[in-house]
Amino acid sequence: MDLRKTKYGRFMNERVPSEKRYQPTEYEHAANCATHALWIIPSILGSSLLYFLSDDQWETITAWMYGCGLSSLFTMSTVFHTVSWKKSHLRTVEQLFHMCDRITIYFFIAASYAPWLNLRELGPWAWHMRWMVWIMACVGTVYVFLFHERYKIIELIFYTAMAALPALVILSMRDRDGLFELAMGGVFYSLGTVFFKSDGLIPFAHAIWHLFVAMGAGTHYYAIWRYLYMPGPSQMKTSR
Questions:
Q1: What are the φ and ψ backbone dihedral angles of 106, each rounded to 5 degrees?
Q2: Which of these, 174, 163, 190, lies nearest to 234 by C-alpha position?
Q3: How many angstroms separate the CA atoms of 24 and 117, rounded?
Q4: What does the alpha-carbon distance between residue 144 and residue 96 come to, in Å, rounded to a whole number?
Q5: 86, 117, 121, 152: which is deepest, by most CB within 10 A?
Q6: What are the chain's domains?
Q7: Is residue 210 part of an annotated ligand binding site?
Q8: d(Cα 130, Cα 116) in Å, to the nearest integer?
Q9: Where are the transmembrane segments (predicted)?
Q10: Whole-structure pTM over 0.90, yes or no?
Q11: Is 206 annotated as a binding residue?
Q12: Cα–Cα–Cα angle for 101, 159, 166, nearest 5°?
C-alpha cells in the first residue's frame, strides 16, 4: 500500500513517470483553476491602467503587448485547467488547450520584457533583443507543435533560457531603477519551478507553482507601472 496516497488521498495522487502527465485529484484541479482565475480581472485592469497612463503611441503599443501577454497567461491557464478537470469527453480539446497554455508562456515571457526593451535606453549591443524575444517565442511555439510533452526537461530548459537571456541585456540599461524588482520577480519564478516539478511529491504542487507565478508577475507589473509608466524624474524613455 502506498502510504503517501493513504495520507494525502484527497489532496495528491501518486507520482507518475516523466513521460506521462500527472493526474491531479479533484481538490488539486479546483486549486489549479482558482489560483490563476483569481488574477484574470486584476491583470486586465492593470493592463488597462498602463494603457491610460501611456504618453505616446510607442508606450500605448507596449502597454497592449504587455497587457495581452499578462492577461492571456492567466486566462489560458484557467481555461486549460478547467477543461482538464472536465476532460472525460474532451480529450482532444484538452490537448489543444494544453498546447495553447504552453505557447502562451513563451509569449508571456516576451511580453514581460517588452516594456523594458522598448521604453528604456539600452546599450549599443543590446537593441536587437527587442525583436529577438519574439523570435524565441515563435521558435518555442514551433517546438510545442512538433514535440509537445515529449521532452519535458528540454521544454523547461527552453523556458528558463528564454527568461534568463534578455535579463543579461537589460543589465546594459543606464537607468537601473526597477532592477531590484525584476530580480525579485525572477526569484519568485525560480523558486516556483521547484513546485512545478513536484506533482505527486507535494500536495497541490501545481497550484503552489501558480501562486509563485502570480507573485512574480505582480512584482514585475509593479516595477513596470512604477518606473516606466508613472511620471517622475526616475523615468527614462528611449529616444524615438
A1: -60, -45
A2: 174
A3: 38
A4: 11
A5: 117
A6: 22-229 (1.20.1070)
A7: yes
A8: 9
A9: 30-52, 64-83, 103-119, 125-146, 153-173, 208-228
A10: no
A11: yes
A12: 120
